[in-house]
Amino acid sequence: MDILLVASAFNSLSQRLYAELSDQGHRVDVVLASHGPEAVRAAVRAARPELVVAPMLKTALPEDVWQEHTCLIVHPGPPGDRGPSSLDWAIAEEASDWGVTVLQAEAAMDAGDVWADGPFPVAPVGKSDLYRNEVSDAATAAVLLAVRRFADGSFKPRPQSDPAIRVVWRDFVRQERRRIDWDVDSTATVLRKLRGADSQPGVLDEVCGREVFLHGGHPEDLLRGHPGELLATRSGAVCRATRDGAVWIPELRPRKSSGDPAPFRRPAASVLAGFPAPPGTGIGHATPLPDGRPHWLPEDPAPLELPPDRVTWTDIRYRQQGDVGFLSFSFPGGAMSTDHCRRLLAAYRKALTRPTSVLVLGGTRDFFSNGIHLNVIEASADPAGESWANLHAMNDLVEAVLRTTDRMVVAALGGNAAAGGVMLALAADQVWCRTGGVLNPHYRRMGLYGSEYWTYTLPRRVGTGTARRLTTDALPVSAATAARIGLVDRLVPVPAEKFAAEVEHLASELAGGPGLAERIAAKAAARRADDRLRPLGEYRRDELARMRAIFFDPRAPYHALRSAFVRKQPTGSADPLAVGGAR
User: Fold this and answer.
1) Within 13 Å of residue 358, how many CA atoms lie on the same side as its CB?
2) Is the pTM above the cut of 0.90?
3) The dihedral of CA 377, 58, 52, 40: what is its sign?
4) CATH topology for 2-169?
């Protein structure tokens, strides 16, 4: 069928539905509702769709559109649930299970007839992680079912007046309800509030006399202090004491009215570095330390290998089971700053000193990597210079993986990947991807040529013609299509919460399987042969020359696209794909 997707943003769910509906042979067009009702009307007139699907809307569809066309709305709540903060309430009320409903648009919000629905478990993770995984799985299944039912023509959607449907209106969750009372709230309550707002809108709070939004939350089992006290930094995050424990907060976002020139999410320690020290420290304003954190907070580094009984946060961990090493990492939004890349490279090199035959890179739920950290770059005093440093650090990491010839390296993608993050995965010998993942193996929509050895790894996997199409069309690719064209070697068909355990099982099988030593020897020989044809350094040199010309040209579109993406501003284009993979 001809299907039009209408979305306020081309986010993770919109991309997944675009990719999976396209896989099924439907012709899918996309329009951003954020460009206004006239843009939606124009898209409807141009596409003449048989069906309109709205995966994510912050504004209502124009009345004339839903009156003249069947329009299906994806609501992240069970049948009968209504309101704009459904997931927030599910987390706040500690629901063990929740649901997704595909309903027909009508005048009353979320009140239309039900075309399909599906349940999902509420994992103890942040709202954005839950949305990209459990919600996305349930929503995709429900939308595909609703599309089949619509195509069949005989299905009658169920009205919400059905006595079996319990209608509940849940109002918008405002900051007054999200606010943390550090003297009263337990660690569990603080974590629940942080997780219910981790990506958007954050939890409004006051730190060092400045209003900021807190993003993300993880428990800490050892550090303690007075409720609300800032205790330490670690890898860019900050630890804050609660009434009965402490929590790690990875990112902060200054309130726009604070006068901060970079009022968007970035590593918490770097935001605090620009604030005056709390009263009683006797420091006031001070120049940040070379690593970007404030003078007045101690660094509490976590060991790379944590004892199994520790309950704390760290973004990079290593563990070993038999002949398999697992180097896991999880960076907010999948973005990798210069510091992230350098620390992960150091951990990777340390992992290579361990006696293993298989090394798994990644393997956690949610994002694998989205490449360079656009927020950190945008906040830098020298965005061009920081872009350059970040890209070199990313290239160093990818090169280390490419040059590993003494063991098999597996990239395990529990979720989405984009741009340089895809190329990091392709540097491994095998790529395993959860079936719900979406890949964006391109750079063009951020105005970039690309690097991370993509001109070597991408054609090597999919062929020159397909590589050109992927990077030129710059469209999201489903996990299934990625496997079909050679981007992915193995699909892992499990829910997000079971991905790590399944990867561990598969990696153990790989390590214990026959012929592994011969495969390692063959890959070492192939690496030497490829270097004789064209050394890796030549690919890097040519890519970086193209990228340097972009980074240091203030008129290059990259700078405006980056700023718009980071600040969540329109780009001036009606093309919903204008700024690449959602983060």
Assistant:
1) 26
2) yes
3) negative
4) Rossmann fold (3.40.50)
Cite the beta strand spans of 64-113 per DSSP E: 71-75, 81-82, 97-104
DSSP H or E run through 4? strand 2-7
Each residue of 90-123: pLDDT tens digit?
Answer: 999 999 999 999 999 999 999 999 999 999 999 9
Reported CATH class of domain 316-498+507-566: alpha beta
Q: Which residues of 243-275 are buried (b: 16+ CB within 10 A; e: fewer)?
A: bebbbbbbbbbbbeeeebebbbbbbbbbbbbbb
Integer Cα distance of 539 and 260 in angstroms: 40
Are 108 and 126 in contact by the 8 Å Cβ rule? The answer is no
Residue 287 has pLDDT above 60, yes or no: yes
Long-range contacts of the stretch 44-49 (C-beta < 8 A, 24+) = 44/4, 44/69, 47/2, 47/4, 48/2, 49/1, 49/2, 49/3, 49/4
* Measured distance CA(138)–CA(55) in Å, rounded: 12
pLDDT in tens, 370-404: 999 999 999 999 999 999 999 999 999 999 999 99
Whole-angstrom CA distances from 240 to 210, 253, 406 are 16, 16, 42
CATH class of the domain defined by 177-272: alpha beta
Residue 373 contacts by C-beta under 8 Å, 6 or more apart in sequence? 335, 336, 337, 338, 340, 390
